[in-house]
């Protein structure tokens, strides 16, 4: 099961884009909702890290999408019976899309992304963007959870409260999260400068890259 984590990053990314296209080309909710549920079951079977937090966010996303779309469609003159399937289909598409890319982010380390991008001889700036985009988002999610734990430690009840209050508390975490993201970006840029990052210099990889990305090269020689 865990071997799927070592799949080539581009294979996983292609799979995620394919699932996304299938979800958005689905005719209606009768196909989209089962696909969304199947995506969530897949995440559970694969034991993807942080699944509990993702499910909470997915539930909140469904509520917001359903409420906003139903309200908008009712204002346009549709009946509740017609608005509900459309809103359910939209929510299902978003859940399937986020689930697919959540799997890619949580099972692809920055090192594996750098290895496969270097093996493909991608331009350095593309390699940097890919590794930062898919590597930093999980780190920011962990910071978001730590901020929530700090709020709980200070006596702020953020679990057993109404949805509007929970949304307000979630927005309150945005400012410290933004500060942390800026600090992280500064630390990364400083590290790149220290290690002599040069956009005009091609780099090699220390991993075997194929359908799977091996953790390290096998030792070929023997110590004499």
From TrEMBL:
Compartments where located: Membrane
One GO CC term, this protein: plasma membrane
Principal cellular location given in the protein's record: membrane
Membrane topology: Multi-pass membrane protein
Chain segments annotated as transmembrane: 7-25, 31-51, 58-78, 84-105, 112-137, 177-197
InterPro entries registered for this protein in UniProt: ABC/ECF_trnsptr_transmembrane
UniProt keywords, alphabetically: Membrane, Transmembrane, Transmembrane helix
Annotated Pfam families: CbiQ
PANTHER family hit by this protein: PROTEIN ABCI12, CHLOROPLASTIC (PTHR33514:SF13)
Family: Belongs to the CbiQ family.
Protein name: ABC transporter substrate-binding protein
The species this protein was found in: Mesorhizobium mediterraneum
